[in-house]
Amino acid sequence: MRKDLPAFLLGFLATSFQILLLREFAAYFSGNELTLGIILASWLLWVGLGSLAAGRAKSFPNRTFLYLSVITLFPFALLAVRFSRFLFHLLPGEIVGFSPVIIMAFGLCLLVGFPLGALFVINVARQAGDISRVYILESLGAVAAGPIVYLFLTLSASSWGTVTVIAGTIAFLSCWTDQEKPCFLWALGIVILLGGFWFADLPSQRAYWKPFQLLIARDTRYGRIQLIRTREQLSLYSNNSPVYSMPDPAAAEESVHFAMLQKPDAKRILLIGGGPGGTLGELLKYRDTKIDYVELDPEIIKLSRDFLDKEEQDVLDSARVRIIFQDGRKFLQGTGEKYQVMLLNLPEPATAQVNRFYTLEFFLLAQRHLSPDGILSFPIPSSETVIGPALQQFLSSLHSTLARVFPVVRVVPGDRNIFLASAAPLTLDPQELSRRIASLALSTRYLEDRTLQSRLHALRIRYLEGMLASGSPRLNSDFAPVSFFLNASLWSTQFRGPGAAILRFFSKVPVSWLLGLPLFFFVLLLPVLRARKGEAIYSLLPLAVMGLTTILAEIVLLIWFQALYGFLYGRIALLLSTFMLGLFLGALLSTRVHRATYRWLAGIQVGFMLLLGLFRIALPAKLPEVLAFLILFSLGILGGGLFVVSNRIYLRVRADYGRGYGLDLVGSFIGALVTSSLLIPLAGLSRVIDSVILLNGIGLLFLLTRPRHRLASD
Question: Are the beta carbons of 476 and 360 closer than 8 angstroms?
């Protein structure tokens, strides 16, 4: 057991640290998929490069020293993420641009990921070159890490607490394999350091928010929630993005009344997100309304009850308000209720998760749950004056998608555009809206006659409608979430550097070029690789293709799962553990193969193509959730099998234990970098899968052209 434990610990440590680092980045860098893609790609790149470098090394550092060094460095990496705003001169809660994300991701992943990659090679050397055994044990460690990390996050409600428990345990277990007294003293020092690290969690968060006052912070399964006091205002943040501020009567009034004044006699109201902060109170001003308020994270309501004033607490406790803790889209899929007004009070579609509420499929779902003359409404941050090209593309995408479902769409101008959609006529006449406010005796502080006359001036409405109708707007759908990409492009225009230009360039590239050109260059590269690498390329190339295929297929499947079945994070640990379990079993079964041959490699690649083809066929249908687990499990079996077979063949040519593992991760790096941020939003899930099938087909044909000369048996 002592001989095998380090390889198991490596898989457990790498997966745990990867999850926790991604959570910390998400909490302080407002992690959308573009940001998280850069971080995941950085991690995979440095682990891969660490393996490649160690494979060429003639001697290795002490293995336990490396384990303890990584464990010692990791808390400081999390501290660096948390206090990075001081390095880049940012205000608390300020959104972060491309450059800080890239600098922090590549720098910190170098410190932690590079030695983890080297440890894989060292473990293989300690196992007398048995790379299959090390890979199996590492995969088993990764299988265990997902649910255990999730369990500790649930119990401790703190990422830093989870780091303390997991890292401290692994430090002592690493020393147990070595059994040297100085090592145990170092491990004891690490535990003391980690204890102080955990104790400093809340004080360090308070230091981050200064000069504002942090009242409470909590890690939940959905993100990090922080409640901030600034003078007389309370603001709730989730992953560094504002959820609501209280009091903010202007935002609450415009979110509610532009929609409700279209149908002031509405009785059944659905509110998805953002109930505290005044929105529910404004809705209750309409007599006899009954409100279903759907909120994803129960902690938002719990914290609101503890810190908001009595009037706002009474609103949450009103008999006319039913609070439902569930994903808003999943709630609609499971209810038979019909509503007269449906309000989305959510952030803009800055992530693939939130984008699900702005797609064609969601608007069709909402329409089915509205009365014949019902109204759907949502606010989107905009510009009070000039609408630039990036904002115009983003708003036009939402408008055109909404107009595909609802015959009447009107948009209120302002620094927040209020989108209104219905099958019945809608009015933006300021005099008529003022008359309705008066007839209902509504008490409003900001939506009064003079404000309405200015905001709804005919010239402003015509300008906005002209901008929304210009250009060639793209449809936003579940499987081609282009509005998420356009929002990322809009976000990037706020910062210096090439980020905005890069995204703008890719948004103009035809999809056929975006997918076809890389495949074309891949084909051109193959003869060059064959000439330079000789026999080795036939066993190494499938590893790089497999790395890209598996990470890309995982991302596609997770976005597909999220779109169909609701919020992803409640299932992500189980989904990824299912994939890692497949890797473990695939690698284990491949060790039973008497002789690793190229025929086996070709057969596994055919398996990848068939599995992806079946997934492609199933993509449009809503099949049972278990299908996602079966696909990931099968993907893992094929990946684990290919890794072992490829390495057994390659090691007959050259004794480099790090080359195959490194190329697998470098392929994954390429897939992680471009898939969620570029390929899926611009090309859509179906075309991405088609391209991956074609990539594997090219790799298979290349493998079949290998000159037929025999190698010595392994």
Answer: yes
pLDDT band at 657 (very low <50, low <70, confident <90, very high): confident
DSSP 107-167: HHHHHHHHHHHHHHHHHHHHTTT-HHHHHHHHHHHHHHHHHHHHHHHHHHS-HHHHHHHHH
CATH H-level, domain 233-476: superfamily: Vaccinia Virus protein VP39 (3.40.50.150)
Q: Hey, what are 107's tokens? A: 């720098």
- Distance separating alpha carbons of residues 385 and 468, to the nearest angstrom: 14
CATH (one of 3.30.1340, 1.10.10, 1.20.1250, 3.40.50) for 509-714: 1.20.1250
What percent of the chain clears pLDDT 70, i.e. is strictly above it? Answer: 96
List, in sequence order, every residue forming a beta bridge with 227; answer none if it has no partner. 216, 236
DSSP 12-64: HHHHHHHHHHHHHHHHHTT--HHHHHHHHHHHHHHHHHHHHHHHH-SS---HH
Identical topology for domains 1-211 and 509-714: yes
Mean pLDDT of 175-186: 76
Are residues 377 and 426 in contact, defined by beta-carbon separation less than 8 angstroms? no
DSSP 586-636: HHHHHTT-SS--HHHHHHHHHHHHHHHHHHHHHTTS---THHHHHHHHHHH
Contact 301, 273 (CB under 8 A): no
Q: Which residue is associated with the tokens 């560094």?
A: 240
Domain locations along the chain = 1-211, 233-476, 509-714
Listing DSSP states for 334-348 in one string gives H----EEEEEE----
pLDDT, average across residues 255-280: 93
Please name the residues in contact with 620: beta carbons below 8 A apart, sequence gap of 6 or more: none
Task: Identify the bridge partners of residue 229 per DSSP, sorted by sequence position.
Answer: 213, 234
For the cut 90, the answer to whether the pLDDT of residue 700 exceeds it is yes
Q: Is the pLDDT assigned to residue 710 strictly greater than 60? A: no
Topology of domain 1-211, CATH: Growth Hormone; Chain: A; (1.20.1250)
Close Cβ partners of 323 (under 8 Å, ≥ 6 residues apart):
275, 293, 295, 301, 316
Sign of CA dihedral 225, 230, 231, 233: negative
Helix runs in 158-297, H state only: 159-178, 181-199, 201-209, 249-260, 279-283
Helices in 317-474 by DSSP H: which ranges?
Answer: 328-334, 352-355, 360-368, 389-403, 430-439, 449-455, 458-469
pLDDT band at 269 (very low <50, low <70, confident <90, very high): very high
Which H/E stretch holds residue 325?
A: strand 321-325
For residue range 51-64, what is the model confidence (pLDDT) as tens digits?
A: 999 988 878 888 88
CA distances from 308 to 122, 130, 244, 246, 278 (A): 55, 60, 12, 8, 11
Listed in sequence order, the residues at least 6 apart from 127 whose beta carbon sits closer than 8 Å to its beta carbon are 3, 7, 133, 134
Which pLDDT score is estimated for 371?
Answer: 96
pLDDT in tens, 570-628: 577 788 889 999 999 999 999 888 888 899 999 999 999 999 999 999 888 777 888 88
